[in-house]
Amino acid sequence: MSFLKRTYKILTQVETWFVFLIFLSATVATVINVIMRKVFGTSFNWIDELSRFIMIITVCMGMSIAITGRSHPKMDAVQGLFKGNAKKIVLLIADVVLAAIMIYVSVIAIGQELKTIRTGAAISTLPLKLWMFWMFVPLGFTGGSIRALFVVAFDIMAFWNQDPRKLDAAPAAGEEVAVP
Questions:
Q1: Residue 179 falls within a domain, yes or no?
Q2: b (16+ CB within 10 A) / e for 80-118
Q3: Domain, as residue range, for 151
């Protein structure tokens, strides 16, 4: 279990830092472009296009981070109706469905990325190939798939009170604490 927990934490740190740095670069580039436009009366056309691609990258990679924080869309209203093992079963079903969808979309995204590579399409304002930016769509969905599979494993472990997400967590307000 420690390998699974360690891998999960490393994946979370890498993804979080990557999304932070890529979004920071878009912010800095946009600010520079605004200053260039307002102060010097000119701007870089490619920064607008780069910012759009960075937003796509941020969304796709951030999706995996959202799964980590259990912030992905699920049946939250339905889950509130259940307690104990019934709630764990509903969570497991929702997470299995999410994992299946993520894997399916990953396969489609990888296929689309391979088509983009084969066509060799280029970006009009940057000396780069289109696939260099679109590769983050299959990467994001594949990362989300891996993360969703981790969540399913953790949901299964929760039936034996071995969920690594809760072993380090402090008890929530109103939650009973077992005294050894």
A1: no
A2: eeeeeeeebebbbebbbebbeebbebbeebbeebeebee
A3: 2-167
Domain assignment present for 174? no
Residue 118 inside a domain? The answer is: yes
Nearest to 135 by CA among 115, 110, 118: 110
Residue 175 lies in a domain: no
What tens digit of pLDDT does each residue of 46-72 get? 888 888 888 888 888 888 778 776 665
**Per-chain mean pLDDT for the chain:** 81
Is residue 121 within 8 A of residue 130, CB to CB? The reply is yes
Structure tokens at 142: 């594949």
CB 90 within 8 A of CB 79: yes
Q: How far is CA 38 from CA 31, 33, 35, 180, in A?
A: 11, 9, 5, 66
Count structural domains, the chain: 1
Using a 10 angstrom Cβ sphere, with 0-12 exposed, 13-18 middle and 19 or more buried, the burial of residue 147 is: buried
Whole-prediction pTM value? 0.70
